[in-house]
Amino acid sequence: MLNATSKSNKEQVNLTSSLTVDGEPQLRTEPISSTEDYGIQLPDWLKTCILKVPPGLGDSCPRDSEALIANAFDLAFRLHKGQFRASGDPYIVHPVAVADLLQEIGAGPTVIAAGLLHDAIEDTDLTLEQLQSFFGNEVAGLVEGVTKLGGIHVTNRTEAQAENLRKMFLAMASDIRVVLVKLADRLHNMRTLDSLQSDKQQRIALETREIYAPLANRLGIGRFKWELEDLAFKLLEPDSYREIQQEVVTKRSEREKRLDKTIELLRTKLLAAGLTEYEINGRPKHLFGIWGKMERQQKEFHEIYDIAALRIIVPNLETCYRALAVVHDTFRPIPGRFKDYIGLPKPNGYQSLHTAVIGRHRPIEVQIRTPEMHQVAEFGIAAHWKYKEGGSPASGNTERFNWLRQLVEWQQEGGNDDHNDYLASIKEDLFDEEVFVFTPKGDVVGLRKGSTAIDFAYRIHSEVGNHCHGTRINDRLCPLSTSLCNGDFVEILTNKTAHPSLDWLNFVATPTARNRIRQWYKKSHRDETIDRGKSLLERDLGRKGFDALLRSQAMQKVAERCNVKSIDDLLAALGFGAITLQQVLNRLREEIRLQNISPEIHPTNSDVAKHFSSQAGSIPSKRSILNSSPILGIEGLDYRLGGCCSPLPGEEILGTVALGNHGITVHRENCVNLNSIPNSRRLPVKWNQSSYLQDQKFTTQLRIEVIDRVGILKDILLRLSDSGINVSDARVKTAFGKPACIDLRIELKDAEQLKNTMRQIRSMADVIDIARTGLN
Predict the structure, then answer these.
(1) Mean of the pLDDT values across residues 623-640?
(2) Catalytic residue among 66, 74, 123, 429
(3) Name one GO molecular function term (predicted).
(4) CATH match of 7-221 with 3.10.690.10
């Protein structure tokens, strides 16, 4: 539950007098003649339930579905009476809205009752035992599962998010209906965020877009996904949201007129082909989807053709393909845009035929599906199961939720300390997969694009990955690093004596596989990695006083700053490569300075403080590590400056892990090539501000458009020479009647010098324009 409640009005109800008679649980026992007594607007379906409940059902667990919902509402109303949301509305409005959303997606009465009571244990003095006595174990279990998701206190935001998500996925594994209530809760809270402070709105919206909307998509609940994305989009990119919204409204009449003509033509063709039972309508794209396509394809609004699409719903599977034939016969199909999600469903169960055709002078997207497929597309897991007493939907669909099982297994096997890795794995598993391959038995497995046999093995099971020693792809032996393609049949060869190799980290594409490999090495080589980390530190700090240094409070603080619990964990992480030697030395140097400035902080560590003082100068000078590289954050690693943007000192930079064995590539933060690189491959880096940079030169390239005259290149080179700037390459392109284009590769010391140089050249009379380009 989001903290949208006014704390001053969050009074807890005394259950002893209002809900018990002679100490026994007691629900409402008298009929209701009018729902107006509640003083709030209720949906019609809830009014019907309340008015139908006869007296006498309140003294035991209600079994009738209408009685269950009516009693749940009445209890929630009494429990939350006197409580108000930050908006000023009575608090009961929120549980009712959550229940209404659950009813819309077809959830059963047990889930709806849990939606009405989902805040009761957390925000009132109702106990779990009392709730069980009122409504039985199933409703109480769902409410308890939702309550647990928000009941944790942690020390930092990353850990908070990771811990809450761990709890969510554990609850989902036991009964996936818990997350239906949580998603409905989040959707209504997103609708009513206006009363919260701006920074809190931004945080909640970002979490919604990164976790909850993809989670709704992973469970197939399109009805929730689209609205969650649009509400988050409205808060996170308000200018873009308003711009696209205005564009959609402005073009609506033109778009509807074009769609009506297309629909009428299709109706005629479908009837002519003997298809009389069908439903066809236009489907507008949601705003976040339009914006996402504009960003991915770098296009303007008017260049996006599928702002709206056609959806054809036909009675059965056979008529889906017959309707597709009619569409392709009526309009020209666009090559490469046909997708058969019926024969190859998405991991969340989504099925439909997708195609794009040229219709009435413009491309248009068409979807074809049956009513059952449409229900699944809109309502996801709620359309798959009929919820029964004592039944759990999660238990019958283990293959569909294989990703959920793996996340739970990982956290149970000790992955809890790696908060960043855990968040990366969750985000990876929640978003759409792009490559679909088959097991030897013909089962479909979805993976991200670029995945290898190792990624496939770990998706099947961690033990399959840990003992993998070979693979057959389409009945051919292939290297483990082979990238998988759509439709491949993949067989993993295992051996009990085989184990993961650190080389696999160079080519695996999924965080799940990467984390499993690291986790195996951490467990199986802990003593070895501790010794390796200890040797690395000792080599740079020297043996004198080293043991005392390891046991010092300063070293413990270094461990804490590196997000590990103990000094042994720090040494293991250093030996394993999870943190770099330079990171440890930098933090240790800061602790040494702290000791020198404020010796009273650790008065009991006088011997260690003396050692710190004696070592203070030697730590950075052992191999001049601090001053040996112009880039901080990747010391000791192979790196290169990106030729696409040729960064210079003084500019904000970001490191990326190159695929293969090509080390680290450093880009400018605004480099367009960063858009295609996932966050899991990005590293925070910065320029070394030490004197080391004063003697360094960095190459960049300029493109100068000039009036074509004799001697113009000489004049530019003379001006650069006067400024002490070396030109390593110069090329001139000319065309009759057009300006000349000069490409110069020059060596500069920083961004300020580049700025001055470009200003000098631009001031020349014959220069039309000058721009910075990537290195050829």
Answers:
(1) 62
(2) 123
(3) guanosine-3',5'-bis(diphosphate) 3'-diphosphatase activity
(4) no
